[in-house]
Amino acid sequence: MSISISFYPEINDKLFEKLGVQNGEYHFSYMKNRDVYLNTQYPDENRMRDIVFIEDPGSEWDVDQHNLKIEKEVQINNPRFLFGSNGVAPRSAELGVGVIWSCKAAGVRGAEEIQVIRSDSPAPLNCNVQLNFPKSTLKSEIVLETVVYIKKSGIPEEDEKMLGNESGLLLGTINHTEIILEGSGSEFPVVEVYEPSMPLWWVECLWTDPQEDPFDEEHVKLCINRGHKNYKRLYEGNVIKDPDLFIEIMASALEIIIRKVKESDYWFDIIANYNNLPGSIGEALYYFKSTFNWDFSSPENLSLHIRQYLENNL
Amino acid sequence: MKIIYEPGVSEITWKTLKQHEAEKAFQSWNDEKPSASCSGEYQSIREDLVKIFNDVLENLGLEEQGSWNKQTYKVDMEFGLQLYDYLNSSSDFTLRTASSNDFWRYLSIKVIPDIVYIRSGLKSDYFYRTTRRIWLRKIWWYVHLSWQGDLETTRDTLWNNSTDEIVQLVERSGPNGYRVKLTRELMKMYGSLDDTQKTRSNSMFRSIMKLNTVKVRSIEPELHPKGEEAYARELFEYFQQKQLQSETS
Questions:
Q1: Which residue, among B92, B218, B229, would best test binding to A if mutated, counting the most A CBs under 10 Å from its CB?
Q2: Which of A109, A212, A223 lies closest to B178 in CB terms?
Q3: What is the reported pLDDT for B1?
Q4: Cβ pair B225:A107 closer than 8 A
Q5: Cβ distance of B219 and A139 shorter than 8 Å
Q6: Cα A41 from Cα A39, distance rounded (Å)
Q7: With 90 as the cut, is the pLDDT of residue B97 above it?
Q8: With an 8 Å Cβ cutoff, is B95 touching chain A?
Q9: Shortest alpha-carbon distance between residue A227 and chain B (Å)
Q10: Does the beta carbon of A183 lie under 8 angstroms from any beta carbon of chain B?
Q11: Residue B84 contacts A where some CB pair is shorter than 8 Å
Q12: Quick check: B70 contacting A, CB < 8 Å?
């Protein structure tokens, strides 16, 4: 767990509003003799953090076999508000708009400059994000952050001395998007095991830092035991035979995970969504709270909300 | 038609081993030296890797059973370089394969567990448990993050390092992935220092990686106006100045 304190002003909600940032639609394509466009899906318009799914109507695009081109336009209606004592940089500085991409599952990240801004740049300012990833370099999901940073230091006026002015300094994020490339993004990690001497199911909590470790089977998992005599009551082939029993198991497993995290020092940061990494256990728990409105305040409320949700949605 | 490289791996569908499967196999060894359990194309991969490993030991004048002392790093580096070269010679081996922990688990537990055992004994972290410490994964990524365009230049760059540099580079990645352009610059600069500069401060590389971890919170190296090379140089200059100051004071 880390706490970062900034010693210079960054783009806050108020400034963000004044800037009038307009994020355009994402366009995804790949090369197969010509540019082939893919569909973009926005599963939840209301989420604080954008999540985008890629859908291929032709069912041909494969992240292992094809490149991925990502295009998007970001418009800043009033860039001048970035400059001066009420902004984030001296008027004489030169700013950059860049995009930082990270693909945690493939273990790589990078960044590119997309636009330069000066205090006298004409408004509105259009920034075209364009990234091209070769085949077999991405996995699972990619996170894009559009950021503003100091490209060239300025000479601060008397009222600008407290502003950041170091070349390269990040001044804030104006867009953050998770693009889901494969799978559904956050499946509950269920694994089947064969352990004749063990119960029908159990939960393994293997994380060290829930704000950093991903919500995947390496760090947390529900084990369903094929070696148990009641396994066939639950599944027949790959089909759930007894959905009520399955919901009961899922609900209990989620309760265990949430209560275990709640016992840790990370809890308050997690539910405040402070320092939760994308795809982490912390982010998943925050999502349950903010999107499904699960009440974590007491064991009985938690138990009730989880079951209500699962019974209505599974 | 795919080109089949020689020596190297031809067309293959890489096998994987989940953590719980790896754990089960590891426990079944009952604290004894493990043996391979693979067949088909993996048998020939095994033969190649065993030969490569034995050649590495022979070239370094080391015995399987003997004490390697300070040569452990040389084994990691040289076998890392050869493993990197060997796996990357297959057109089917991609960054996606290299980032799959379950791929490394299969290789460690099923294909060459005896080699991992020679290097580390029966430490579960090195075989499957702690992803960043799985030995084969760690030495492949060490070479990848240090790659200077070819095997010889990369070997020259890494020659005077120690196992601590491997740990610092591979395990101190930052939570969202490696900045490959930056790590290659850092390794190039570190590799160009002469031995006296390194020995004056034994933990210089560790300090640089720590400083970098703090610095990337406010500066993205690839957005540095003069590029990641300038960013890397600033990190080194900071420490060189600090050393000079402490020597003159």
A1: B218
A2: A109
A3: 25
A4: no
A5: no
A6: 7
A7: yes
A8: yes
A9: 15
A10: no
A11: no
A12: no
- Distance, in Å, from the CA atom of A75 to the CA atom of A23, rounded to the nearest integer, reads 6
Q: Is the pLDDT of residue B67 over 80?
A: no
Residue A6 vs residues A32, A56, A88, A145: alpha-carbon distances, Å: 46, 42, 12, 19
Q: For the range B33-37, what are the long-range contacts, defined as Cβ-Cβ under 8 Å and sequence gap of 24 or more?
A: B33/B114, B33/B117, B34/B109, B34/B113, B34/B114, B34/B117, B34/B122, B35/B113, B35/B114, B36/B110, B36/B111, B36/B112, B36/B113, B36/B114, B37/B110
**Which distant-in-sequence residues (6+ apart) come within 8 Å of A91 by Cβ?**
A83, A84, A119, A154, A157, A160
Please report, for chain A, the start and end positions of each structural domain, with discontinuous segments joined by +: 13-180, 190-313
Class of domain A13-180: mainly beta
The complex's ipTM works out to 0.88
Cis ω on the peptide bond leading into residue A243 (within 30° of 0)? no
- Give CA A191 to chain center in angstroms: 24
Check CB contact of A136 with chain B, cutoff 8 Å. Answer: yes
The winner for highest mean pLDDT among A169-173, A234-238, B70-74 is: A169-173
A110 vs B180: CB contact, 8 Å cut-off?
A: yes
- The verdict on A44 touching B (C-beta cutoff 8 Å) is no
How many whole angstroms separate alpha carbon B237 and alpha carbon A117? Answer: 30
Of A59-63, B85-89, B193-197, the least confident: B193-197
The pLDDT tens digits for A233-244 are 887 766 778 888
- State how far the Cα of A129 lies from the Cα of A63, in Å rounded to an integer: 20
